[in-house]
Amino acid sequence: MTLDPGRREIVSVEIAAEPDTVWAHVREPAKIRRWFGWHDDGMDAEIQRVFLEDAVVTEADELASGDGQVRSLLWKGGDVLTVWPSTRAGGTHTLLTITRRAYESYDVFSGAYDDVDERWIASAQQLRFALELHPGVERRTLRAIGLDAGPAGRRLLDRVGLHGIRGVPVGAHFETRRPDGTLLGGTIWHRSKFQVGIRLHGPTEPLLIIDHNPTLLRTSNGRVTALLATFGTDDEMFAALGRRWSRWWGLRASAEAVEPAHPAARSHPRWGLRGARAGALVP
Hints:
Shape: globular
Distance between the termini: 41 Å
Number of helices: 7
Oligomer: single chain
Strand content: 25-35%
Structural class: alpha+beta
Radius of gyration: 19 Å
């Protein structure tokens, strides 16, 4: 499929699930909860507004590269989510892409951190993770939001034991020790310029997404947001994990703190990061 020159492809993922299954996960609220946003009191209302009220559905009967139904969601701001069959035989895989309008001034904005772009990337990868590793299982989430990335020589990710993820390619395994001496191991699930997703090892296999906004502010050296998305966690396990999560990131407030308002995201869905599940090597 040829990309319109007036658009930018934000993320494209191949998902090991049938197209009808993927489409159901962007149309049915109970399934959308397994990958979209984070769990708070406003999540259900947001899903209803974003996916059922604001999104316009379009369908086409065939692809340029072969037979197959193409289905898309379009938003007024120009964001488009498209689902179509992969070229793999048997129709058991699906391609999902998200595109947005091109920047009006490419020279100024190209390569800059874009909050909505990053949230779309994280959401698409959470959807793939949920369908491929935890199909039909409910998700719970934890976040550490807008943490100071730290100055040179005292970077936050180094201090919390995540220096080992630098340069590790997608699909490769890494192990590191956290400050408390416990082992953390995982496989790189995805990587983009500003974020990395890690499939943590252990019996519950959660997804940890680290997002780094390098924009320097008067109050910080850039910002780090971490999301832990896990599935099938009971209340006791989730509460214990929340305590460990807060200690790991040095949070004084609850790990469920509300994300500060971001002007660039006010007119967009709050694509975000929350989720939790405990395992032997989980934070």
